[in-house]
Amino acid sequence: MTATLLIVVCLIWVGLTVATHVSTRIAERVVEFDVFALVPAWSFFAPHPLTLDPHLIYRDKAASGEFGAFREAPNSISAHSRFRCIWNPDRRVSKSLFDALSELSGLAQCVKPHELKLSFPYLMLANYVMHLDGNSEAVSRQFAIVSSGGYDESEEPVLVFVSEFHALPKPD
Amino acid sequence: MVVPGFANEWSAEDILRVTAVFASLSVLVSSLEYLTLLPHFRDQGLLSARTSRTQRIPKWARVLFQSFLSPRGIAVILGINTLAASWCLLLPSGNLILPLTLMVAAQCVVHYRFQYGLEGSDQMTMILLVMSWAAAVCPTEPVRVVALGFIAVQSCLSYFIAGVSKLCGPAWRGGTAVRDVLRTRHSGHPQLWRLFHRSPCLTRGVTYLVILFECIFPLVLLLPTPWAVAFLSLGCLFHLGNGIAMGFNAFIWAFIGTYPAILYCSRFLSQSIWF
């Protein structure tokens, strides 16, 4: 009886795994209720491998209207570590940032600006950027996504997305 | 059911215990990694609970897991994971129901909390944990066989789907994908990128070998045990290489952890075909 039940569960699990890779529509439906991410995504680096590094940059605006220089947010891309095949905590941060940047870049192409500002990746990145240290005279901040060729420095960085300026939180 | 001639006649129960050890290693490493990132879990951090609450998730899940979203809550969950995984690693031959139950529950919270940043290794680890847990809770031979069969099928599917998906990608078919991935700081390696950049033939060869290896991986189930061991040794090298070149450390434990189950299943399938 227990084995039969387990077989049914396994068949459903395998069926959903295959179906989500065959149909985008099914994959979107499954993601909605699969809160524990139990249905796996096995198409590693395919069909389109990630060949660019996304970078999160930001700049401040002072009350006088003067703009500061763009700076890169820390932890954008993890540094190369010799021991990362054993211990690689930076990857967790850079993967989170990478996922959010990729999703935001994609959403920017297909949703309206007011919807974009309420999307999870936008709120996540804005919350992070707005709390980074900056110029004490700054009153608002803007963030942007730039993609680069990574170690291939012959490729010029490309601007992918620019946010509005948002008022900076007042210091406690 | 015992597999004769396979690692001194290991039973399905022994193999599931080995599987639980690999899953525990994966959970231990990832939990300790997350614990070093606690500052990122604060309201001002990149992995803030403030913004993770805004995800579109069912209400029941929000009600159930709200208290675990805070930095302190998730630290407790990761601590439970670390202790349970250590328990399985230190006492693999004991009763594993409690530590496996704790790990399955805690991993569900981790998956819920960190929707961004999850990798295939986390999902394979969950498969190993759930099947090891099912076999520990219902320690009958049919349940063990089903659990091992499911792990083997999901493992073969993971390679096969990855291989076939690569066949649909122009960069993979063109033979440049490996070089282009290696140039990124996110998943690449500066020395290897320079090497592949200078040698288009090497790039093409490695790219096509990766596709071939992934596409034919399910055939391992039909190979006689010595050949299956040799093929899976290539798989170990593949994951070690990915760990060194691309930093995919968690994949090593999660995916190699499926190999004992594959060997168990290949023994029966290959016997019915070849003998």
Task: Name some characteristics of this structure.
heterodimer; A: 172 residues; alpha+beta; 5-stranded antiparallel β-sheet; 5 helices; 40% helix; B: 275 residues; mainly alpha; 14 helices; 0% strand; globular
Walk me through this protein's architecture.
Helices cover 40% and strands 17% of the residues of chain A. With 172 residues, chain A is α+β, with helices and mostly antiparallel strands. In chain A, strand 1 (53-62) and strand 2 (71-72) form a beta hairpin. In chain A, helix 1 crosses helix 2.
First CA to last CA of chain B: what distance? 19 Å
- Structural class estimated from helices and strands of chain B: mainly alpha
Q: For the record, give the distance between the C-alpha atoms at the N and C termini of chain A, rounded to a whole number.
A: 61 Å
- Mass-distribution shape of chain A: elongated
Q: Structural class of the secondary elements of chain A?
A: alpha+beta
What gyration radius of chain B follows from the Cα positions, in whole Å?
Answer: 20 Å
Question: Can you tell me the overall shape of chain B?
Answer: globular
Indicate the proportion of strand residues of chain B.
Answer: under 5%
> What does the largest sheet of chain B look like?
none
Brief characterization of the structure:
Chain A is α+β, with helices and mostly antiparallel strands and about 170 residues long.
Topology:
The complex is a heterodimer of chains A (172) and B (275).
Chain A: H1 2-22, H2 24-33, E1 53-62, E2 71-72, H3 89-110, H4 113-116, H5 120-130, E3 138-148, E4 158-162, E5 166-167
Antiparallel strand pairs in A: 1-2, 1-3, 3-4, 3-5
Helix pairs in contact in A: 1-2, 3-5
Chain B: H1 12-35, H2 49-52, H3 59-65, H4 71-90, H5 97-113, H6 120-137, H7 141-167, H8 170-173, H9 177-182, H10 190-198, H11 200-216, H12 225-246, H13 249-256, H14 259-274
